[in-house]
Amino acid sequence: MFVPVVDRDQKPLMPTTPSRARRWIKSGKATPFWKKGVFCVRLNVEPSGRQTQPIAVGIDPGSKKEGWTVKSQAHTYLNIQADAVTWVKDHMEQRRQMRRTRRYRKTPCRQPRANRARGSIPPSTKARWQWKLRLASWLSKLFPITTFVVEDIKAKTKGKRRWDVAFSPLEAGKQWFYQQLAKLAQVLTRSGWETKHLRDALGLKKTGKKTAEVFEAHCVDAWVLANSVVGGHLQPDNKRLLFVVPLRFHRRQLHRLQPSKQGKRLPYGGTLSLGLKRGSLVKHTKYGLTFVGGSSNGKLSLHRLADGKRLTQNAKKEDVKPLTFCSWRFYV
Q1: Which CATH number characterizes residue 230's domain?
Q2: Domain containing 255: what range?
Q3: How many structural domains comprise the chain?
Q4: What average pLDDT does range 304-319 have in this prediction?
């Protein structure tokens, strides 16, 4: 894997090899840092050259998982398999049920506000596309990206004039995503049959197991899309994967969904734990790289990056070194 490089103004430059990055750090020419799960270096001197090669990002959207590939003509820099945001719909339904339950209580309460228009995109659909936009924005800060290539997913129409005016939240969310993505770099789209044609022309196979943690599940299509723009390879030169799983944060609430015993309302939610943001990447003296999951009685809860399993609830704040804030967990 290559190491992303930025200058003193955080402008991305062409990535470098790990050995060269180590030499830069040892000589003081560069400073190491973490950018939400990826190790990077920041140059402390003026770079010898600012010429950049065209870099394309292939995006293969999916309902459960999706593939991302960052590629130039010479190298494949990064392959990402990311989990989709799937919990918003259930959360909105649960919140609606609890709100309706509160309205029937015999307690003084304010009058319900008038129904407010939410716009043309439902919350669950918008959350999915916002997650993709966050990943695209993150990658654009690491690499000098020139083009995003997205596999264009489509919804079936009903063939009725009134229905087809706004027949699918998927279409509305997709168009919103394309508009926002165009602010970062050029956006190209490919239909599903075009992606298959490109994949077959290179003799690559795609597995039918959509949730498998292998290159052939989603990243093969993302690699084919990126390669169709920058070229340079007939076979993937890098199949190593970085898995990204979004973390679910809870808003600050007065109490949990069900009343506690003896009428005590225990605080729930929020994103700060002893001054550290939940999800922050930290390095513990015993457990190594972990992320912050919460706090209790003045101690931190640390979780493993690979599967989110809790490692300890009694970590002292002075035993951890904060590296970067991150709203997702990752593993290679």
Answers
A1: 3.30.420.10
A2: 248-331
A3: 3
A4: 90
- Provide the percentage of residues in the chain whose pLDDT is more than 70: 92
What tens digit of pLDDT does each residue of 28-82 get? 999 999 888 889 999 999 988 888 999 999 999 988 999 999 999 999 999 999 9
| Measured CA distances, 164 to 129, 158, 179 (Å) | 21, 7, 21
| Residue 219 sits in the same domain as residue 254 | no
- Integer angstrom CA distances of residue 225 from 15, 67, 95, 147, 197: 21, 11, 40, 11, 11
pTM: 0.86
Q: Given this model, what pLDDT does residue 221 score? A: 92
d(CA 221, CA 108) in angstroms, rounded, equals 57
- In a domain, residue 129? The reply is yes
102 belongs to a structural domain: no
DSSP string, 71-86: E-SS-EEEEEEEE---
- At residue 25's C-alpha, the angle toward residues 5 and 32, to 5°, is 55
Phi, psi of 94, deg, nearest 5: -65, -40
- Whether 142 and 27 map to the same domain: the answer is no
